[in-house]
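Z., the sequence and structure:
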Amino acid sequence: MDAARVDQRLPGFCGGIMFDIEDYKYDLPEELIAQEPAPEREESRLFFVDRKTDLFSDHRFLDLPGLLRAGDLLVVNDTRVVPARLYGRKETGGRVELLVLDHPEGGRAPASRRCLMKASKRARVGDRIDLEGGVSGAVEAVETDGIVRVLFSDPDGLDALMGEQGAMPLPPYIKRRPCDPRAELDRDRYQTVYAGRPGAVAAPTAGLHFSERLLERLSGAGVSIAGLTLHVGHGSFRPVRSRDIREHVLGEEAYRIEPETAAEVNRARAEGR
């Protein structure tokens, strides 16, 4: 018998309410944090919890068609992560890392954009930043939590630079150096296979484990699939500094739900699916 498939019972955890940040602390050895994805997306591990019985079991993502039922509705987030991490230099020669946060859809590219900025010295209004491809910018405002507003000389060139040379904004626990040879792999795997609308600065990570093959198997098993858009924002990178997590303020995120998706969700809920 496969011990990983034996159902176990959660000891009262599912119904618990945890507001104290200390309740979330646990030891995670650094050597257990994967720095590259599994060779196949659907080979990633899946933790299954039955909320009616508090039973749980370990699976692989490829087991999902057997865990869902015909008639179920799977809603996916079709946001696309922008490779928005760029490297440059100040006029003084100091190295700068920028993560561009603003990616408006349609229309003319704005020249002024919020960025997360990392440098050896604190940013000041007027600081000039030179990027590749002749694109430069000047800090026009310094906000909180490392955010600055930068006025770029060539906003269209900035978008082109991100598309061609930008690095993916990976979570801080995944370590990458500038010009890391794994950058091309990151561009492919830190993106869902159904990503469509650009605008996220972090991936909707649960969706990374779906492959085209798995989606076809789900459809074949009678599971319907609908899409919506939620552009994951930089709040994903912000540490929680308040003891009571209810005091932590999450940043706003842009979203879009098509009427067809809303109708599908409402219909599935009304039918108890």
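The two ends are 32 Å apart (CA to CA). The mean pLDDT is 90.

Let me know what you think.
H.
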